[in-house]
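Q: What would this chain look like folded?
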Amino acid sequence: MVRGAAGCLTDGLVRDVRRIRELGFPVFHGGIGPLDTKGRAEMMAADEPVELGGARVAPGDFIFGDVDGVVIVPRAIAPEAIRRALAKIEAEDTTREELLAGNSLRSVFERHGVL
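A: My prediction, written as structure tokens:
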């Protein structure tokens, strides 16, 4: 954080999750484990493409994450991907409202094609 990092994405394990959450620093990881990194972590490169969990991540790509997971959007397609994501969110909001109003799952999906 002090050096300007906006968050951390790793397919490795992390620890001290409670403290990390208190900092408000977003960390997306492959799991939680008790071991620290003393003597085992080494910076190999910076600002180079890498592969995480089978996905290529390059400098300048957009990374969005929440409790459900992480998505990597290549910079070249970001405007279109974001436009489509916002449209899907709007459709999901509509379907949620209709479901809460008592409409059946089937009828809502038939109308909107989204749940």
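The mean pLDDT is 91.
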